[in-house]
Amino acid sequence: MSSRSVIPFGPQHPVLPEPIHLDLVLEDERVVEAVPSIGFVHRGLESLVSKKDFKEMVYVAERICGICSFGHGFGYCDAVEHIMDIHVTERTDYLRTILFELSRMHSHILWMGLMADAFGFENLFMDTWRIREKVLDMLEAATGGRVIFSILDVGGLRRDVPDDMLKSFLPVLDDIEKELAIDIKTFLNDSAVKSRLCGVGILTPEQVETLGCCGPFLRGSGVKRDSRKLGYAAYDDIDFEIITSNDCDTYGRTFVRAYEILQSIKIIRQAISKVPSGEVMVPVKGFPQGEHMTRLEQPRGEACYYVKANGTRFLERMRVRTPTFANIPALTETLQGCDMADVPILIVAIDPCISCTER
Amino acid sequence: MEQEFRKVSHHAILSEVQELQEEHYRLIQICATTVQEGYEILYTFGKGYDEVQVKIHTDVGEHVQSISRFFPPAWLYENEIHDLHGIEIDGITLDFRGGLYRTKEKAPFAHKEVKEGK
Q1: Does a structural domain hold residue B73?
Q2: Does residue B105 belong to any structural domain of this protein?
Q3: Could you report the per-residue pLDDT of A41-82, keeping only the tens digit for each?
Q4: Range of the domain at B66
Q5: Touching B: A residues 207-236, CB under 8 Å
Q6: What are the pLDDT digits (tens) for A127-152?
Q7: pTM given for the model
Q8: Closest by alpha carbon to B99, among B116, B69, B76?
Q9: How close does chain A come to B11, measured CA to CA in Å?
Q10: Do B51 and A295 touch (CB under 8 A)?
Q11: What DSSP element (H or E) covers A352?
Q12: Are A210 and B44 inside 8 Å of each other by CB?
């Protein structure tokens, strides 16, 4: 019988941009159990509701994470707008949709680079991140920021994005679409890449449902669910299909993310062609009272924003359930039985965002 | 659309979630809130795009039953609630006994009595 040994993985590891720790129980080169521990960057941001008023909390929500900052700000604003019965303008809905999809694009392209780096394809890593810069440039032009945008506010947006600027994004999106098509072809057809992704980390549709997975991790196992179909912002007026793969492995998750980038480009084009004129801010009167849970589709999957208010400036509770947190039970499941060499690939496959998870 | 947050007794939570599991709901999240008289725990379940919110109230020091035998991923949420709020949860399928979150301060969102170990 082979002997068992415990190998600590993380919190510092070349493949991990952020700290998470796993105790990997190995039999020879095979993982038989993975026990996670987190909390290395827990900042207690949710507890700031007792010190920052409900409008200042928009800044805090955006700072939960540097990659998903727009989504966090959006989810928080949407939840507060629900309990205050605020209806944002149609233009705001469209602009929020455009900015959200740009965020999804840069997050997914970032992931592609990290995955290429994880399996040792440095040129692919550099090329994807070169393309990502173009998305960040558009976000910077529209919001003034590349990481934290500070454009969202309860009741709308702090600044408008002019129609001329939106139209100037169209040729850039055309370029990105062409350039990404080459990288996607490499990701999905190159035999060396496929040998690292195909058949690795298999989860059946039943397993991903039972384990509470979300996002591309869920859709990569063939489950057709995307919270954008809940119809928030302008998604109700946009025509788009849910991307899924029946491969149920890391290749399937890569397929979903790759095609979701191209789909985001289509959504942005549609939104730019339909964006109505008008104001981007409505007046906000009084203080929030009540509770609400907003669910939306962040790049990494469904995120939940719960707010509870008592009619004062300060909320009683703000809670964010992030997609990475929801995918951790499935991660530990996929690690059981895998080869030690596949552990970095499987961790990157969930697109882990630890600063979101720990808030 | 107004959301419904259904309140149930914390003794009835297991039968509630068993029913939801039999109806093929999935666990979306569990969230604890520290309130003046104790804690509120909010469970969110989903089926397709629909959701159900179930809320329980528990006093300081009172133990809560784990729902992880019905919804396996609940172990992560319940360990988080234990580590951050100091709520004792019995029967978690994968119980880290306070070792999931390596925070400097133990149970940072707990009531003062819990932090002081009373």
Answers
A1: yes
A2: yes
A3: 778 787 887 888 889 999 999 888 888 889 999 999 999 999
A4: 5-110
A5: 209-212, 225, 227, 229-230
A6: 999 999 999 999 999 999 888 888 99
A7: 0.90
A8: B76
A9: 24
A10: yes
A11: none
A12: no
